[in-house]
Write a structure and sequence with these properties.
The protein is of the alpha/beta class. The chain is built from 13 helices and 13 strands. Bound molecules: nicotinamide-adenine-dinucleotide and thymidine-5'-diphosphate. The site of nicotinamide-adenine-dinucleotide (NAD) has 29 residues, from α1, α4 and β5.
Length: 357
């Protein structure tokens, strides 16, 4: 058995980061230091089950705080930094791009710079084995037409939303830190994730909550836009593979091989809920309400994940329909979690994004 790893994870209290933290503690026997600012989408309840685990440490802070990060690095001497921290929601970036620049661009750049400074002090063997893995999105590649080939690692960047522009910028900084300074950087670009613990501003949990409450389900435009859905556990497995065997300076695309239109996704959730919880509002498809489209709405995302499949022997394991059924059940079974996240910030967001739509 190899040496136990210590990972400094940023944004580990969010949807994907918390899945990675739980998996790394459970499956890899890793020690985790989780640096998180606890913004509206960062939720300590996501990690309640490991709060008292001696291998788990939480630090409340910002990736843009160089002094704090420097201290954490010197104290814990991590084997890898995995950067999940971000402002992550397209609609919020349309309402106000500024926090996206602050965290995704400036924050990532400060984090990279602080890690570089510390990395340069390491003895050669430790420095060589160290990895900085930056988690990004397929949205940096822009929008596909219905018959275009899926995004590969060499598809040119063409971000269309303030969110994807800020993520593209952070990817460029991560790449530049490898090319310019030799920091051992890896970048992953993944498609839309789904699964437990996702903040219900994103399509799938929002629709589950609306359909359960018997409220109108807002579908932007005609619901024809297509996303490639990746289960969050599959995503975290892929990240673990890239950390272990990815070639430094490389990017890896991670996709779910599950392209669906938004309307297909919404109708499937309605059918699943009608089956599990029949009620007066069934069939819940009648709750679907087509609302004003998102400005600059990317039509289609699709990932070609041949590179990670070939180089690192990873492939998505989840079938979309059963993964979605499992996800719906998770939301039904975790009523305390749901009650907590539907507090003030969630309600404010519903009001500002949907009332005038
Ligand atoms: P999330 O919004 O659920 O979580 C983000 C986390 O980052 C939260 O815990 C938040 O408190 C923390 N955070 C925000 N600003 C911070 C700062 N300045 N310093 C420290 N912590 C901060 O997002 P997610 O869905 O878990 O996404 C994680 C990463 O994966 C992001 O980088 C996102 O761009 C990327 N991604 C997400 C998806 C998806 O479908 N959710 C798809 C592709 C890529
Ligand atoms: P979202 O979950 O916000 O992820 P992203 O914009 O990063 O792909 O949205 C997924 C798709 O669902 C996207 O095409 C926009 C659409 N959508 C709706 O139709 N209604 C909604 O209320 C939301 C939040 C999204």
């Amino acid at each position: 058995m190899g040496k136990r790893k210590l990972y400094l994870v940023t944004g580990g209290a969010g949807f994907i980061g918390s899945c990675f933290v739980l998996r790394a503690l459970r499956q890899d026997g890793a020690t985790i230091v989780n640096l998180d600012k606890l913004t509206y989408s960062g939720n300590p309840a996501n990690l309640r089950e490991v709060e008292n685990n001696p291998d788990y440490h939480f630090a409340h802070g910002d990736i843009g705080d160089a002094a704090m990060i420097g201290k954490l690095l010197r104290e814990h001497q991590p084997d890898a930094v995995i950067n999940f921290a971000a402002e992550s929601h397209v609609d919020r970036s349309i309402a106000d791009p500024t926090p996206f620049v602050e965290t995704n661009v400036t924050g990532t750049c400060v984090l990279l710079g602080t890690v570089l400074e510390w990395w340069r002090t390491l003895e050669p063997a430790k420095a060589q084995d160290f990895r900085f893995l930056h988690v990004s999105t397929d949205e940096v590649f822009g929008s596909l037409g219905p018959n275009d080939p899926a995004f590969t690692e060499s598809t040119p960047y063409a971000p269309n939303s303030p969110y994807s522009a800020s993520k593209a910028s952070s990817d460029h900084f991560a790449r530049a830190f490898y090319e310019t300074y030799g920091l051992p950087v890896l970048i992953t670009n993944c498609s839309n994730n789904y699964g437990p613990r996702q903040f219900p501003e994103k399509l799938i949990p929002l629709v589950i909550l609306k359909a359960l409450a018997g409220q109108e389900i807002p579908v932007y435009g005609k619901g024809e836009n297509i996303r490639d859905w990746l289960h969050v556990e599959d995503h975290c497995d892929a990240i673990a593979r890239v950390l272990e065997g990815g070639r430094i300076g490389q990017t890896y695309n991670i996709g779910g091989r599950s392209e669906r239109s938004n309307l297909q996704v919404v109708e499937t959730i309605c059918e699943l809920l009608d089956g599990i919880r029949p009620g007066p509002k069934a069939p819940r498809k009648q709750l679907i309400n087509f609302v004003k489209d998102r400005p600059g709405h990317d039509f289609r995302y699709a990932i070609n994940c041949a590179k990670i499949e070939k180089e690192l022997d990873w492939t998505p394991k989840y079938d979309f329909r059963s993964g979605l059924a499992e996800t719906v059940r998770w939301y039904l079974d975790n009523t305390d979690w749901l009650a907590e996240v539907q507090s003030g910030e969630y309600r404010n967001w519903l009001k500002s994004n949907y009332d005038e739509r």
